[in-house]
Design a protein that fits this description.
It is an enzyme of class 1 (oxidoreductase). This is 3-oxoacyl-[acyl-carrier-protein] reductase. Catalyzes the NADPH-dependent reduction of beta-ketoacyl-ACP substrates to beta-hydroxyacyl-ACP products, the first reductive step in the elongation cycle of fatty acid biosynthesis. The protein has eight helices and seven strands. The protein is of the alpha/beta class and 234 residues long. The protein has one domain: Rossmann fold (3-Layer(aba) Sandwich), CATH 3.40.50. Strands 3-2-1-4-5-6-7 form a seven-stranded parallel beta sheet, sandwiched between helices. Helix 2 packs parallel to helix 3 and helix 3 packs parallel to helix 5. It starts with a strand and ends in an 8-residue tail after the last strand.
């Protein structure tokens, strides 16, 4: 049976790989995007998750065209890297509002139908940075660490309704965002990773799809690192 799946920020990078993984498995996949032209093959809905009204309208369109969301992957996020002494209030609040509060908005809206159905799968995309920390990324790390507490609270709150809530924490992934780094920067990062390479987006997608599968029905409140061993022990 195909399910109604929503991947926020599913137009590129990790989000697109996740959307394709679900589509390849036969699910009906909607993605949200903020700008540009979305990829073909999905129900693409323009939505800025920092705007509650846009979130509501996106869900209404998805529900009308492919049914209530049964699997939600909250992937949309932003970075505004800066050392603490140079980080503005706006730099901090923008990242928190998108990555953490935006996730709250999309999960809360999906939860309505999941509670009625007494089933659902929620997967939040965090980061190894949220567990390990990273100089110049205090805002991003705080937002991604916040997702862990958010997910585990919801796992306790919603478990009796057969709704699982889990977190995937990717390490450094080979995407457009990391390809802009210099060769020296990329080499320095790889030296920290026990597996000595970047992840491919598809490797993150595989973990997400597993957590949304029947095989993972007894997993909730988990944080699954897909980081090549970078953050082990956290």
């Amino acid at each position: 049976m195909s399910r109604s799946v929503l991947v926020t920020g599913g137009n590129r990078g990790i989000g697109l790989a996740i959307a394709r993984a679900f589509a390849d498995a036969g699910d009906n996949v909607a993605i949200t995007y903020r700008s540009g032209e979305p990829p073909a093959g999905f129900l693409a809905v323009r939505c800025d998750i920092t705007d509650p009204e846009q979130v509501e309208q996106a869900y209404k369109e998805i529900e009308e065209k492919q049914g209530a969301v049964e699997v939600l992957v909250a992937n949309a996020g932003v970075t505004r890297d800066q050392l603490l002494m140079r980080m503005s209030e706006e730099d901090f609040s923008t990242v928190l509002d998108t990555n953490l509060t935006g996730t709250f908005r999309v999960v809360k809206r999906a939860n309505r139908a999941m509670l009625r159905a007494r089933k659902g799968r929620v997967v939040l995309i965090s980061s190894v940075v949220g567990l390990l920390g990273s100089a110049g990324q205090a805002n991003y790390a705080a937002s991604k660490a916040g997702l862990v507490g958010f997910a585990r609270s919801l796992a306790r709150e919603l478990g009796s309704r057969n709704i699982t809530v889990n977190v995937v924490a990717p390490g450094f992934v080979d995407t457009d965002m990391t390809r802009v780094l210099s060769d020296e920067q990329r080499e320095g990062i790889v030296k920290q990773v026990p597996l000595a390479r970047y992840a491919q987006p598809e490797e993150i997608a595989s973990a997400v799809r597993f957590l949304a599968s029947d095989e993972a029905a007894y997993i909730t409140g988990a944080v699954i690192p897909v980081d090549g061993g970078l953050g082990m022990g956290h």
